[in-house]
Amino acid sequence: MGAGPVESRRRMHHPVVFYLVCLILVVVIPAFLFSIVVMKRTTEAQERIFESLLRTSTSAVNRAVEREITSMFSTLNFLSTSESLPKGDYATLHAQATKTLEGTDIYFLVIDQAMRQRLNTRVPFGTPLNVASEPVSARLALSRDERMVSDLFFGRTAQQWVFNVYMPVRLANGEPVLLTLTKNAEALRRAVNPDVLSPGWNAAVLDSSGTVIASTDEKQKTGQPFFLRVVPSLRLGVSAMKRDGVDYQVVTEFSSLAGWRMIAWAKSSDVQAPAVSSFLWLTIGGAVFAALAAISAVGIARVLSRDVRLLAHDARRLGQGERVAPRPYAISELETVSRALAEAADARVKSENEVRFLMREVAHRSKNQLTVIQAMLNQSAASAENASDFAETFRKRVAGLARSTDLMIANATQGVNLMELAKNQLKPFTPADAERVRIAGPAVLLDPQASQTLGMALHELSTNATKYGALANETGIVSLSWTATGEDLNLVWRENRATIDKEAIAASRKGFGSVVLERMLGMALDAKLDFVVHDDGIEWRVTIPLARLRDEDVHQQGAAQ
Fold first, then answer.
1. At 252, which helix (H) or strand (E)?
2. Mind telling me which InterPro entries this protein's record contains (predicted)?
3. Taking a C-beta distance cutoff of 8 angstroms, is the pair 417, 520 a contact?
4. Candidates 3.40.1080.10, 3.40.605.10, 3.30.565.10, 3.40.50.1820; correct CATH number of 364-560?
5. The dihedral of CA 166, 169, 171, 177: what is its sign?
6. Which of 65, 394, 398, 435 is the most buried (most CB within 10 A)?
7. pTM
């Protein structure tokens, strides 16, 4: 049963080029088929987007036209409030309307029931006027007594294609007349903006009979029937139709205000041309891409095979403990692996050196610790009055040494900060009023040996202050300060407001604390000590060469990290 997976792996044992070609086939063929599906969906989506944009475009044309007509109705409402109208003072009304419409391409007319023009601002007042050029829509507006918009017609006075907007009113004598604004069809061209249309599309405004009012297509002339004769029967929205063997796509929208249609149209072949072109390019591009990918796969496989053999050679050298130099590779990822192998070789050598250094350091520090503990044991036994006193004194000294050791281990490479060491050693002796213990000084780094010695010294000074000095009462103050001047560290321990006991002070100078201060500081750190007894407490002044506080090996190791 165990031979099955092995046999399967043997059957799958092929060179890199085989897998690269398979990868290309697996990726390219489904991607090509998927691209066809996506392109079809995209084309359909684009068609819907085009339809939406075109409907938006026709809606924009519709809104522009209806804004023009609404503005004309508003102007008629304004003119209907003229005091000259009910009086029949057409000369004054002509002057008012001319001034109101100055600078526009709109003209004001008043038409009576007989379809005669009583006023027309196209010509000076008093000029003989013709009957209305489009009486059908005018009579309809009078008979319905409602506002209306006419179809396109050729104005005899204007001598061009125009349309009217009617508003029926009654004069003071009850006679109905039509207040009319007439506008040139040419002025609506700005409402049919070709910039909002997609390429290949045209738009036009048609009246209710299918006559072109304005168009973006120069072939569709104003006043001529639109070339698609069935426009009046087309449903609103998007439609497809054929004319003279040519398929068209048509978008229409109806204006309820004017009764006109806005239409956009294009040849179906023009609309579908981008999709056909995209499919052709996709097919050609897919074939070319597959061929280039296969050729590239063969070349990449050769480069990979060569580089993998070099990497395998370097890996064997690393296993034998040799240094490995990074190599340049054509593939950046393989170059990264090569750098990683070189770094691993360097790290291995460095780790071996660090292990040897740490072994020496552990042996050295263990001996120092044993020597210190032995000295603590001897001194505690010599000064203890009984076994309980010995155990308590020895326990506290070992605890102080442990605190120094914790700091030393935590900061093995960077060095122990003197401020942190001082706070750590004095914390167990600090009374409830923390202001009675004051510590100040600049940052000074200590090597492990110096931190142990100074930690023990601070522990003993704190112990003596608690037994005999400033911390033995409720008001005493202990101040620890230091400064670094030149090549020396000047450390001062000062006790204030203490009750001086000469005999106790004399006895304390024979204890372990004085041994630590005078002997160990002096011997281990080349310290110079001065002891001063003040009226309110003792003072220790210690001068230590800075060079003895910082081990060069620790300094170099911390700098390297």
1. strand 246-254
2. HATPase_C_sf, Sig_transdc_His_kinase_HWE
3. no
4. 3.30.565.10
5. positive
6. 65
7. 0.45
